[in-house]
From TrEMBL:
It comes from Dictyobacter vulcani. It comes from the Bacteria. Gene3D superfamilies: Periplasmic binding protein-like II (3.40.190.10). The keyword Nucleus does not apply. This is ABC transporter substrate-binding protein. Residues 61-290 form the Solute-binding protein family 3/N-terminal domain. Transmembrane segments: none annotated. It holds the Pfam family SBP_bac_3. Residues 1-27 form the signal peptide. Keywords: Signal. SUPFAM superfamilies: Periplasmic binding protein-like II (SSF53850).
Length: 295
C-alpha cells in the first residue's frame, strides 16, 4: 500500500525531473523500461469508518486503475519503484476509510475506462475530467477542480495565448484526453476559417508529450491545468503558461454505471476524507491552490 503521508522532498524530485525528463539533451524518456509495477509498502488493514463495496474485484482490497504519467497527479517514483501523487494519496485514504488495502493497477489513459468496464479495477482515479459523453457510460464522484491550459517555450515567442492561436502550429497532446478531442475540433474550426490546421503530435504518455516541448519539436502542449502549472513551476527558465486556463472542469473518481454499491462506498469515503481534514492536507502537500478544492 502506498502510504498517504510518506514525506518526500519536492525540491529533490523537481531537480531530478528537470535533469532526466526535460533537458533537451536527454531525449525522450523510455516509458517501457521493463520495471515491474510497484507494490508499495505492506501495511496492516486499517479499521473501516464506512462500508466497503460488496462486489470488490479482490476481497479485502480496493483495486484502482491509473495512468502514472501525469505528474503531479499520479506518477512513478523510480527511486523507490512506487506510485505517488495526489491521486495515489487520495486512493489510499479512500481505501483506509473502507478498511481495505490499496492495489494500484497501471494502464494507458486511453484504455482506462474500457478496462474499468471490463472489471479490471473497482474504480479509476486518474485525473479524469467529467463530461457529458463520459457520464453516459460511467458514474462519477467529483473531487478536484481543474481545467485545460497551454504550456509554451519561455518568453512565448509565438504569442500563443489561446486555442485560437494554435492554427498552423505544432501541438503535443496525450491520446484519449479531453484536450485531444478539443484540439481536433479546434483544427476543423481553423480550416473552416481559411487558416492552416493544427498539427497534433499525439502520444500515450504525458511525460513524453512534455518532452516534445523540451526538445522544441512542438510549439506548445495542451493538458490539464495542474500538470501545466507543475511543469512551469519546476522549469521556470524553460517554459511558461500560454494565456490563462482555457476551460474549467472537474475531475471525478470513476465508477461503472449502475454499480451503486461501489458508488455509495466511494461517495461516503470521500465525505469522510473531507470531514477528517485529509482533503485539505493533501492540497497543502501537493501545493495546489485552494480554488481547486470542491466547495
Amino acid at each position: 500500500m502506498v502510504s498517504v503521508f510518506r514525506r518526500r522532498s519536492i525540491l529533490r524530485l523537481a531537480a531530478c525531473l528537470c535533469c532526466l525528463l526535460l533537458s533537451s539533451a536527454c531525449g525522450t524518456p523510455n516509458q517501457n523500461s521493463g520495471v515491474a509495477s510497484p507494490q508499495g509498502t505492506v501495511l496492516p488493514t486499517p479499521a473501516a469508518t464506512v462500508a466497503a463495496p460488496g462486489n470488490l474485484i479482490t476481497a479485502g482490497s480496493l483495486t484502482v486503475g491509473t495512468d502514472p504519467s501525469y505528474i503531479p497527479m499520479e506518477y512513478l517514483d523510480t527511486a523507490n519503484n512506487q506510485f505517488i501523487g495526489f491521486d495515489i494519496d487520495m486512493s489510499n485514504t479512500l481505501a483506509q476509510h473502507m478498511g481495505l488495502k490499496l492495489d494500484v493497477k497501471r494502464t494507458g489513459f486511453d484504455t482506462l475506462l474500457e478496462d474499468l468496464t471490463n472489471k479490471r479495477f473497482d474504480i479509476v482515479l486518474a485525473a479524469v475530467t467529467i463530461n457529458d459523453e463520459r457520464k453516459v457510460k460511467y458514474d462519477f464522484v467529483p473531487y478536484f477542480r481543474a481545467g485545460e491550459s497551454l504550456l509554451v517555450q519561455k518568453g512565448n515567442p509565438l504569442s500563443i495565448k489561446s486555442v485560437a492561436d494554435l492554427c498552423g502550429r505544432k501541438v503535443g497532446v496525450q491520446t484519449g484526453t479531453v484536450e485531444n478531442t478539443d484540439l481536433t475540433a479546434a483544427s476543423k474550426t481553423c480550416q473552416k476559417n481559411g487558416k492552416a490546421t493544427i498539427a497534433q503530435t499525439v502520444l500515450q504518455s504525458q511525460t513524453d508529450v512534455i518532452q516534445l516541448l523540451a526538445n522544441r519539436r512542438v510549439d506548445a502542449t495542451y493538458q490539464d491545468s495542474p500538470v501545466t502549472d507543475y511543469y512551469n513551476k519546476i522549469n521556470p527558465g524553460q517554459f511558461e503558461v500560454g494565456g490563462s486556463v482555457v476551460t474549467s472542469a472537474t475531475y471525478g473518481i470513476v465508477v461503472r454505471k449502475g454499480d451503486n454499491s461501489t458508488l455509495n462506498a466511494v461517495t461516503n469515503a470521500f465525505k469522510a476524507v473531507r470531514s477528517d481534514g485529509t482533503y485539505d492536507k493533501l492540497f497543502s502537500k501537493w501545493s495546489f491552490s485552494p480554488q481547486q478544492k470542491l466547495s
